[in-house]
């Protein structure tokens, strides 16, 4: 948790300095100037440094006892589990590719990370909880940044946040009750698969409609400049 808090603070400071869409940074710097790019590109060595630190920790030999890896005082898992057998670099590479694809296509990271987690053997409950924590991690950073920088529309965003929170609690209670009654954790997988299918259909339809509107109005449909 200490490492995660440090990561949150580092990227929060970077984005607070340079600002974002519809928000001027906390310091007066020229957009696309030298200082702007120095601060923006500082995210790369920060990400590499934290990734290297975490990978180094993962590669440390674990305490073993009778062929088992001791996770804590009450839990043990097989040494040759599918998850532990994966190379340490798989996780940062998957995260990097997910971030690039999310940025290019404008989709949420959870839409891509959930199938990856399932494929490498992460239990459904753990996978869903991890993805939701990642969403909270990134969205809370943007929310605090926008509040400090005075971006308009905070009230509407807070209203949406309350609705989403209530819906999440209701969904959690319903799915937990269904799992207890049926004894099938796979219900989480089916729920995630259904949401992913609906999201893919909605994104495809809305994207096609937006592209057609741009084409019909003669707008530029290429990549925009970074500034």
TrEMBL record:
Gene Ontology CC entries for this record: Cul4A-RING E3 ubiquitin ligase complex; membrane
InterPro entries reported in the protein's UniProt record: TM_pro_TauE-like (IPR002781)
Gene Ontology biological process: protein ubiquitination
Membrane topology: Multi-pass membrane protein
Keywords: Membrane, Signal, Transmembrane, Transmembrane helix
Domain of life: Eukaryota
Primary location recorded for the protein, binned into one broad class: membrane
Transmembrane regions listed in the UniProt entry: 35-55, 90-111, 131-151, 158-179, 185-213
Keyword DNA damage: no
Signal peptide: 1-23
Cellular compartments annotated: Membrane
Family listed: Belongs to the 4-toluene sulfonate uptake permease (TSUP) (TC 2.A.102) family.
Protein name: Sulfite exporter TauE/SafE family protein
Taxonomic source organism: Eleusine coracana subsp. coracana
């Amino acid at each position: 948790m200490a490492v995660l808090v440090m990561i949150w603070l580092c990227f929060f400071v970077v984005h607070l300095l340079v600002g974002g869409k519809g928000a001027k940074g906390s310091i007066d710097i020229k957009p696309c100037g030298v200082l702007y790019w120095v601060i923006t590109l500082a995210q790369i060595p920060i990400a590499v440094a934290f990734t290297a630190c975490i990978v180094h920790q993962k590669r440390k030999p674990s305490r073993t006892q009778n062929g088992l890896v001791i996770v804590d005082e009450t839990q043990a898992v097989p040494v040759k589990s599918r998850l532990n057998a994966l190379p340490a670099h798989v996780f940062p590479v998957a995260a990097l590719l997910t971030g690039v694809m999310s940025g290019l296509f404008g989709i949420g990271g959870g839409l891509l990370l959930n199938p990856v987690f399932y494929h490498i053997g992460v239990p459904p409950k753990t996978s869903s909880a991890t993805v939701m924590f990642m969403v909270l991690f990134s969205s809370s950073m943007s929310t605090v940044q926008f509040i400090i920088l005075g971006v308009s529309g905070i009230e509407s965003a807070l209203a949406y946040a309350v609705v989403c929170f209530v819906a999440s609690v209701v969904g959690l209670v319903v799915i937990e009750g269904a799992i207890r009654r049926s004894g099938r954790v796979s219900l989480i997988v089916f729920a995630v698969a259904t949401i992913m299918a609906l999201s893919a259909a909605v994104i495809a339809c809305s994207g096609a409609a937006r592209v057609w509107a741009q084409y019909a109005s003669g707008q530029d449909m290429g990549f925009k400049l970074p500034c």
